Protein: Large ribosomal subunit protein bL31B
Organism: Streptomyces vulcanius
Amino acid sequence: MRSGIHPVSRPVVFRDRAADVTFLTLSTAASARTITWEDGTTYPLIDVEVSSASHPFYTGASRVLDTAGRVERFERRYGRPAAARH
């Protein structure tokens, strides 16, 4: 294996802003922000919007979409008149 061509892997703390969860893992991502972990060691900190702690696929939570309301709003704005709908 050639030396000097692979990025350096190091411990990094990722913080999920939506679920307010932090986790320590190995990553090649770099950050100027740091955080002191539970063991007293300082690690780079990377904020993420979604992780397995907050993503609906992993949490089992689902969003309810108001598709009927969307269709009615679209039709009011751009679509057919109310009499032509039925």
